[in-house]
Amino acid sequence: MTRETILYISDQATCGDSVSHSLEAAGYEVVSTKGTMQAIALLFILHPVAAAVLNSREGVQTNWDVARSLKAVRPDVPIVV
Description:
There is one protein chain. This protein is α/β, with parallel strands linked by helices. It is 40% helix and 22% strand. The protein has three helices and four strands, in the order βαβαβαβ. A four-stranded parallel beta sheet has the order 2-1-3-4, with helices on both faces.
């Protein structure tokens, strides 16, 4: 059985991250990155992606900018901010 993939973009250290652990515990395969450019590149190579989850502590505006960039690449992928 193949697990659905979640692209997790966080500006925090991903090791020990409770969101990432919760997604894995829920049965998802989690692919993590810290950077917007790497997240865009991953959207090109990861098919299918169930959703992209944004977890930025630097501010809401940063999340919206990243979300717009991701939607420009893959408008079919749901984004959770």
